[in-house]
Write a structure and sequence with these properties.
The chain is an alpha/beta fold. The chain is built from 14 helices and 12 strands. It binds pyridoxal-5'-phosphate (PLP). Belongs to the trans-sulfuration enzymes family.
C-alpha cells in the first residue's frame, strides 16, 4: 500500500466506502445531526461540526495523499493555518520563512500577536545560521513555505526539519503550491502539512478550503479536539467538491507542470523578459534542491517584463487565454499582477526590496495546450 504512487492513491487512497448504498463515490451528507437509536448508543457521527461522513471520506483521502494518518479539512486555507497555531501555548515564538504568503503574514502579525501573544521572526530558512540564532527559549514552531509566492524560492525541508527536531520544535509546511504530487513534506520529517485546497487540490477554481495533515498520533489527537473546539470545519458540499477535484490531481498536475516547464523555457529565451523564476529550470539558483525534493518545478512561473507600466498593461490586455485573476491552481491559466494584487498591501519600497516589481507577473499555468498558451504569450509580447 505504501509503495503505491500518487496517481493511484488519488483514486483509491483513504476510505471512501458508502455504507448506505455502496455508491461508487461518497454521497453528500448535509445533516447537521445524527440520530442516536437509544441512550448511550451513538454511532460514529453525532454532530457535523465534530464529524461528517462526506468530510471524513475526503479527509481520509487527503491523509493518504500526503502520507499522513490524519487530516482535518477546514473552511479555508487560512482557517487551517489558524488552527495549526492553536497547538501552541500563548506567548510562543515562531520562526517563519521570510517571504511567507501575505495572508499568513497578516494572520500572524495583525491578529495572533495581539490575541495570543505570539511573536514571529522572519528569516530566510536557507540560512541555517540565521535560523539557529533566531531560536529562543519560547520558540515552538518553524513555519515553512516552499516554493514561496511569487518568486518561487525553495526551502530545504530535510535540513530545517532536522534542525527543528534537534531543538524540539514543531514544523509545519505550507504545501499549497506543490501538493503531495510534487513533494511530500511529512517524508522529510515535517510534523504538519498545511494546504489551501482552494488551489490545486480542488483544481477548478470553484471552492475555498484548507487542511492540516499529520503522521503523528499525538498531533492527530490534539488537532481533532481543536478543530471541534474552533469549529471552522469544511462543509459537506465543499468536502465533496474538493474530493472530486482531488481524484484528478495526478493528470492535472502532470499537464500543468509540463506546460509550465515549456512556458518557462520559452520565456527564458524571449528578449522582452528580464527574469524568469521557475525551480524546474537549470538557471534557477536552487534547481539542485528542486531535483532533490520536488518531482517537477511546479505549475507556477513568475516573470519580470522588460519595460514600464504601459508595457505591463498592454501585455495583460492582449492576453486571451491567461485570465487576470487572484489565486492559482485551476485548470485555466491565470496571470496575477503581484504588485497590485497578491502583494498590494506591501509598500513599494519593501516590495522592491523583496524582488517584486510593477513588472513582476505570476503565471498559474493551466491544462490547456502548451503551444496555444505559448502562442498567446508570444502575441501579447510582440512589439
Ligand atoms: C491561497 C493560499 C493560502 C490561503 O488559503 P485560502 O484557501 O485562500 O484561505 C495559504 N498559503 C498559500 C501558499 C496560498 O497560496
Amino acid at each position: 500500500m505504501t509503495t503505491r504512487k500518487i496517481a493511484t492513491i488519488a483514486i483509491h487512497g483513504g476510505d471512501l466506502k458508502d455504507k448506505g448504498h455502496n455508491a461508487i463515490f461518497p454521497p453528500i451528507v448535509t445533516a447537521s445531526s445524527f440520530v442516536q437509536p437509544n441512550l448511550g448508543e451513538g454511532g460514529e457521527f453525532s454532530y457535523s461540526r465534530c464529524g461528517n461522513p462526506t468530510r471524513k471520506a475526503y479527509e481520509s483521502a487527503l491523509a493518504a495523499l500526503e502520507g499522513g494518518i490524519y487530516a482535518t479539512a477546514t473552511a479555508s486555507g487560512m482557517a487551517a493555518t489558524s488552527l495549526a497555531l492553536e497547538l501552541l501555548p500563548r506567548d510562543a515564538h515562531l520562526i517563519v520563512m521570510s517571504s511567507v504568503y501575505g495572508g499568513t503574514y497578516r494572520l500572524f502579525e495583525d491578529l495572533r500577536t495581539r490575541t495570543s501573544g505570539l511573536s514571529f521572526t522572519y528569516v530566510d530558512l536557507n540560512n541555517i545560521q540565521a535560523v539557529t540564532s533566531a531560536i529562543q527559549s519560547n520558540t515552538a514552531m518553524i513555519w515553512i513555505e516552499t516554493p514561496t509566492n511569487p518568486l518561487l524560492e525553495l526551502v530545504d525541508m530535510t535540513a530545517i526539519c532536522n534542525l527543528a527536531q534537534e531543538n524540539n520544535l514543531l514544523t509545519c509546511v505550507d504545501n499549497t503550491f506543490s501538493t503531495a504530487w510534487n513533494q511530500r513534506p511529512l517524508s522529510h520529517g515535517a510534523d504538519i502539512v498545511m494546504l489551501s485546497t482552494s488551489k490545486y487540490i480542488g483544481g477548478h477554481s470553484d471552492l475555498i478550503g484548507g487542511a492540516l495533515i499529520t503522521a503523528r498520533d499525538d498531533l492527530a489527537t490534539s488537532l481533532d479536539k481543536l478543530k471541534t473546539t474552533v469549529g471552522a470545519t469544511a462543509s459537506p458540499f465543499d468536502a465533496y467538491l474538493a474530493l472530486r477535484g482531488l481524484k484528478t490531481l495526478d493528470v492535472r498536475m502532470e499537464r500543468q507542470c509540463a506546460n509550465a516547464l515549456k512556458i518557462a523555457e520559452f520565456l527564458s529565451a524571449h528578449s522582452e523578459i528580464l527574469e524568469v523564476h521557475y525551480p524546474g529550470l537549470p538557471s534557477h539558483p536552487q534547481h539542485v534542491l528542486c531535483n532533490k525534493q520536488m518531482r517537477t518545478g511546479g505549475a507556477v512561473v513568475t516573470i519580470r517584463l522588460r519595460g514600464n507600466k504601459e508595457t505591463v498593461r498592454r501585455f495583460i490586455g492582449r492576453l486571451e487565454l491567461f485570465v487576470l485573476a487572484e489565486s492559482l491552481g485551476g485548470v485555466e491559466s491565470m496571470v496575477n499582477h503581484t504588485a497590485s494584487m497578491s502583494h498590494g498591501s506591501v509598500p513599494q519600497k519593501e516590495r522592491e526590496a523583496m524582488g517584486i516589481y510593477f513588472e513582476t507577473l505570476r503565471l498559474s499555468v493551466g491544462i490547456e495546450d502548451a503551444d496555444d498558451l505559448i502562442d498567446d504569450l508570444k502575441q501579447a509580447l510582440a512589439p
